[in-house]
Write a structure and sequence with these properties.
Layout (H helix, E strand, L loop, with lengths): L4 E6 L2 E6 L4 H12 L7 E4 L5 H6 L2 E4 L5 H4 L4 E2 L8
Parallel strand pairs: 3-4, 4-5
Antiparallel strand pairs: 1-2
């Protein structure tokens, strides 16, 4: 069919998306429509498919059960009980 696709892991799942489409590009489109800056966004994630999205946000947070590689790259990590470290 000539479609360029990318495979993205999401913990135990596999996502197949058009090339260049991810959570960050979706957020960018929404923010553009609302005329808001990504610097004013707090993004929260837990898996491989959140890396680009969290890098795009002004403040990035990983939940307590997020993958270790994601926790290493965010501004804050939550702990059980909802408190933020």
């Amino acid at each position: 069919m000539g479609l360029e696709l990318q495979v993205i892991l999401n913990k135990g799942a596999v996502m197949v998306l058009p090339s260049g489409i991810n959570k960050a590009t979706g957020l960018a489109a929404a923010l553009d429509e609302m005329q808001l800056s990504p610097e004013n966004v707090v993004g929260i994630g837990d898996a491989e498919n959140d890396h680009d999205f969290l890098n795009f946000c002004g403040c990035s947070v990983a939940v307590a059960n997020a993958l270790p590689t994601l926790k290493e790259r965010v501004d804050f990590v939550t702990i059980v009980g909802g408190m933020v470290l």
